[in-house]
């Protein structure tokens, strides 16, 4: 063991991210994997639950909006429209909700070992992505069963999905960092998610919001989550599910939700980065 | 010093200070902020480290000692990069593995297997390396039968064993170890000692925080004493151990008056307590194997008939080594009136193991309830040194015999 050859480095205290990317990635992956295993530990059906949960929500919403409220009658492929909305929103909801307490829950680690703190919320986002992939397989099965013709725009689907992961991770960073000094974030965020569920076109297609180019439609589409879901449906089903740009009435409008997304990620990163050095002391 | 330390220095701490701001009531909700936006929060500043500087050379075994709250763990956490320092610089050379507050950050809901892999990666191994070392780690911790058990079902001793095993197996050049020697059973403690000695012989740099002055004197090349966040001494471990005893004595030791009034009815007061050698000279240090006396003087303020004089001798882990009173040897101790003074001495052969010891004298009435007259906790302290290393409290006089079995058979 020769220590004399090793280069000296300055200890600057805990940081959100650090230069060693391979370690950063190994840590994120390991934490995400064990986190994912833990989530369903002790349940008889195990991983099947990550699949069953959105499917059960789907069952309820389908029952309500197809058989009672009868939105479904007027929409082509309503089950798919509904399922895409639920799967994508569930991902966002679960990741951000799990992120709220993730740093505090990992107190043991945070107080005893130094590691890039950003690993913690990112591992939650990654662990949620494992479930997302499983759920997308279920969506694919539904797509196959409902006889939708393959189309080239399917190749574009990774774009909204990646944006969704970025948005969830950015918001996750924000709530996880803010929760350390302000425990109010938990109840606040639960309510915000409830509100978002209704403000986002999940059980209703976007064309049901009064009309194309209407100011209410535009407002709904300020939410990047709405744009992500609407465009995913569009890429999947084609013109019968209008794109966000069509619904808003102009391509230019989409600059605003894009700005909201970028701002959410930037603010999340910035706040986490700023609070990370003191997290171990404030726990 | 600014910038990189010399090549043979593996830990350079330069003028490091760390202050904690402790709000008297932690404000954790927005409501409290919103309702009282202008209320000045009462904040107490705790200066945990003040201008600490030390250079530790590569391959050095360095001890850090000090009373509770003197800043040892804060310094370790700053070195480990868990706390951000307020001022000063810390430079390290080589990969560092911390073992702080008896753990490396385990998740109680995960199995030992998952925890070991996560922590090995945390401490700098690649996932492949972590899986390769896994068997060695479990073997060292002697937990092979329990690897698939969730950690929350482990005893605290088992968790510490596992944590220590991970730390010594990640090939770090620099080990930061906080208080491992005080936990675990005897067998595991010996294993820890062996692992530390091996790491030292391999040329790794080791920082050990401990209250065990024997360990400091036995292993460390150098040591440092922290007192109220400042460096009180750096250098020869024997000197530092002595200074540590002095700091402790300033708190617990003579003069007895400083300990405050006793807990009894005050019919008499213990005015002094000390240890003296066989020549009757007051000393701080007793050489193992020599004879010595523990003594007290008592000032009577009221008439007391045949009081009982007692001593309790405890070691640094508060284990009682000897608890005696004069009732066992003297059926009558005499009548004392107000203003009388008495001196009581108990002579014994010092067969105590190396370490720090505390004397707590007391006086009681010789009645049914044995009512307390005066008691002084840890009124005097002394160090036993110069003995053979003993694993235990006493170096009992003993005689080792080895007899070959077949010779006995032949003789019989």
Which characteristics define this entry?
heterodimer; A: 283 residues; mainly alpha; 13 helices; 1% strand; globular; B: 412 residues; alpha/beta; 6-stranded mixed β-sheet; 9 helices; 24% helix
Describe the secondary structure blueprint for this structure:
The complex is a heterodimer of chains A (283) and B (412).
Chain A: E1 8-10, H1 21-39, H2 48-68, H3 78-100, H4 102-105, H5 107-112, H6 119-145, H7 158-179, H8 185-199, H9 215-220, H10 224-237, H11 244-248, H12 255-275, H13 279-282
Chain B: E1 9-23, H1 30-35, E2 43-57, E3 61-66, H2 72-79, E4 87-93, E5 96-99, H3 112-122, H4 127-141, H5 156-168, E6 174-178, H6 186-201, E7 205-209, H7 213-219, E8 222-227, E9 230-235, H8 237-252, E10 268-277, E11 285-287, E12 291-300, E13 304-305, E14 308-315, E15 320-325, E16 335-336, E17 341-349, E18 355-364, E19 372-375, E20 380-385, H9 405-411
Parallel strand pairs in B: 3-7, 3-8, 5-6, 6-7, 11-20
Antiparallel strand pairs in B: 1-2, 1-4, 8-9, 10-12, 12-17, 13-16, 14-15, 14-18, 18-19, 18-20
Helix pairs in contact in B: 3-4, 3-5, 4-5
Structure description:
The complex is a heterodimer of chains A (283) and B (412). Chain A has helices at residues 21-39, 48-68, 78-100, 102-105, 107-112, 119-145, 158-179, 185-199, 215-220, 224-237, 244-248, 255-275, 279-282; one strand at residues 8-10. Chain A has 283 residues and is an all-alpha fold. In chain A, helix 1 packs across helix 6 (119-145), helix 2 packs across helix 3 (78-100) and helix 7 (158-179) packs antiparallel against helix 10 (224-237). Chain A is globular and about 65 Å long. The model of chain A has no long low-confidence stretch (mean pLDDT 87). Chain B is α/β, with parallel strands linked by helices. Chain B is 24% helix and 34% strand. Chain B has helices spanning 30-35, 72-79, 112-122, 127-141, 156-168, 186-201, 213-219, 237-252, 405-411; strands at 9-23, 43-57, 61-66, 87-93, 96-99, 174-178, 205-209, 222-227, 230-235, 268-277, 285-287, 291-300, 304-305, 308-315, 320-325, 335-336, 341-349, 355-364, 372-375, 380-385. In chain B, 40% of the residues are buried. The model of chain B is unreliable at 253-260 (pLDDT under 50). The interface between A and B is large, with 40 and 57 residues.
């Amino acid at each position: 063991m020769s220590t004399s050859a090793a280069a000296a480095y300055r200890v600057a205290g805990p940081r959100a991210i650090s230069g060693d990317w391979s370690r950063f990635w190994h840590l994120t992956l390991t934490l995400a994997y064990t986190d994912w295993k833990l989530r369903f530990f002790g349940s008889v059906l195990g991983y099947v639950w990550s699949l069953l949960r959105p499917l059960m929500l789907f069952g309820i919403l389908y029952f309500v909006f197809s058989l009672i409220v009868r939105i479904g009658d007027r929409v082509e492929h309503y089950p798919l429209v509904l399922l895409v909305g639920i799967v994508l929103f569930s991902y966002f909801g679960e990741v951000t909700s799990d992120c709220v307490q993730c740093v505090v829950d990992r107190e043991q680690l945070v107080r005893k070992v130094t590691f890039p703190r950003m690993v913690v919320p990112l591992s939650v986002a990654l662990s949620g992505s494992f479930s997302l992939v499983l759920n997308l397989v279920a969506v694919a099965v539904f797509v196959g069963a409902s006889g939708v013709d393959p189309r080239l725009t399917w190749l574009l689907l990774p774009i909204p999905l990646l944006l969704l992961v970025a948005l969830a991770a950015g918001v996750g960073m924000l709530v996880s960092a803010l929760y350390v000094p302000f425990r109010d974030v938990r109840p606040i965020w639960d309510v915000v998610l409830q509100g978002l569920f209704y403000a986002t076109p999940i059980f209703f297609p976007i064309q049901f919001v009064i009309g194309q180019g209407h100011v209410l439609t535009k407002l709904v589409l300020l939410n990047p989550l709405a744009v992500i879901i609407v465009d995913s449906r569009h890429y999947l089903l084609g013109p019968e599910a209008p794109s966000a740009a069509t619904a808003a009435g102009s391509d230019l409008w989409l600059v605003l939700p894009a700005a909201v997304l970028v701002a959410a990620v930037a603010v999340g990163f910035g706040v986490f980065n700023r609070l990370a050095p003191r997290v171990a002391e404030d726990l | 010093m600014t910038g990189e330390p010399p090549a043979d220095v593996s830990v350079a701490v330069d003028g490091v200070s760390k202050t904690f701001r402790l709000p008297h009531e932690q404000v954790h909700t927005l409501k409290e902020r919103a309702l009282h936006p202008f209320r000045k929060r009462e904040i107490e500043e705790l200066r945990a480290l003040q201008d600490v500087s030390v250079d530790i050379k590569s391959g050095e075994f360095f001890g850090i000692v000090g009373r509770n709250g003197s800043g040892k763990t804060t310094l370790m956490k700053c070195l480990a990069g868990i706390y951000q320092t307020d001022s000063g610089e810390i430079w390290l050379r080589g990969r560092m593995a911390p073992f702080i507050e008896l753990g490396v950050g385990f998740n109680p809901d995960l199995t030992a297997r998952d925890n070991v892999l996560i922590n090995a990666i945390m401490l700098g191994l690649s996932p492949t390396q972590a899986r390769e070392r896994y068997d060695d780690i479990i073997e060292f911790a002697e937990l092979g039968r329990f690897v698939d058990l969730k950690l929350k079902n482990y005893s605290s001793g088992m968790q510490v064993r596992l944590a220590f095993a991970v730390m010594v197996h990640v090939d770090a050049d620099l080990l930061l170890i906080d208080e491992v020697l005080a936990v675990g059973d005897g067998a595991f403690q010996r294993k820890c000692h062996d692992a530390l000695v091996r790491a030292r012989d391999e040329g790794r740099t080791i920082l050990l925080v401990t209250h065990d002055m024997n360990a400091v004197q036995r292993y460390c090349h150098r040591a440092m004493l922290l007192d109220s966040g400042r460096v009180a001494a750096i250098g020869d471990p024997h000197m530092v151990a002595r200074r540590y005893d002095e700091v402790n004595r300033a708190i617990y030791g003579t003069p007895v008056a400083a300990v405050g009034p006793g807990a009894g009815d005050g019919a008499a007061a213990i005015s002094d307590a000390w240890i003296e050698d066989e020549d009757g000279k007051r000393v701080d240090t007793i050489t193992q194997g020599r004879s010595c006396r523990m003594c007290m003087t008592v000032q009577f303020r009221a008439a007391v008939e045949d009081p009982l004089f007692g001593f309790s001798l405890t070691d640094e882990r508060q284990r009682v080594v000897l608890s005696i009173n004069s009732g066992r040897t003297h059926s009558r101790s005499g009548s004392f009136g107000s203003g009388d003074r008495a001196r009581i001495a108990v002579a014994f052969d010092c067969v105590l193991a190396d370490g720090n010891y505390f004397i707590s004298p007391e006086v009681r009435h010789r009645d049914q309830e044995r009512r307390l007259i005066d008691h002084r906790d840890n009124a005097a302290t002394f160090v036993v040194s110069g003995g053979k290393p003993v694993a235990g409290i006493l170096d009992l006089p003993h005689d080792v015999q080895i007899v070959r079995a077949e010779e006995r058979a032949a003789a019989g």
